[in-house]
Design a protein that fits this description.
The protein is mainly alpha-helical. Helix 1 packs antiparallel against helix 2, helix 2 runs antiparallel to helix 3 and helix 3 runs antiparallel to helix 4.
């Protein structure tokens, strides 16, 4: 059952995007360097950029359909969650790898429960029917 409105999902997109960019400093692993630091920053910037282009309440450029946005979210989140093992930093202390796994898994859950169309799009479709 999808119960998270796209309006809420959009807010979460920008909050998570900024949090990912800040994660190395928030969780104290910026000094580790390498993939552990670069991956959340790149994915955070990417999330903000593709959110700006998504067709939902918080996407000013409205080019990417919400289902495509959700597919991007799944791919990026799986990559984030698996990155400690893919890039070999799972052996570091928990503050280095655990944020990658937790945020990746949390975003996957948000995607599973997010609606696939903005409210005004669903209303317009219902009115035409």
């Amino acid at each position: 059952m999808r119960f998270i409105p796209t309006k809420v999902h959009g807010i979460l997109d920008y909050v998570v995007g900024v949090a990912l960019v800040a994660a190395p400093w928030l969780f104290g692993f910026a000094n580790v360097g390498g993939a552990a630091v670069v991956i959340p920053i790149v994915l955070g910037v990417g999330l903000i950029v593709y959110s700006l282009f998504t067709k939902y309440e918080w996407g000013p450029f409205g080019l990417i359909p919400m289902p495509v946005h959700l597919a991007f979210d799944i791919v990026a989140s799986l990559f984030l969650a698996l990155s400690p093992w893919i890039f070999g930093f799972a052996g570091e202390s928990g503050n280095v790898w655990l944020p990658h796994v937790v945020v990746g898994a949390a975003v996957i859950l948000v995607v599973i429960f997010s609606k696939t169309q903005p409210e005004q799009t669903r209303r317009a479709g219902a009115a035409r029917a």
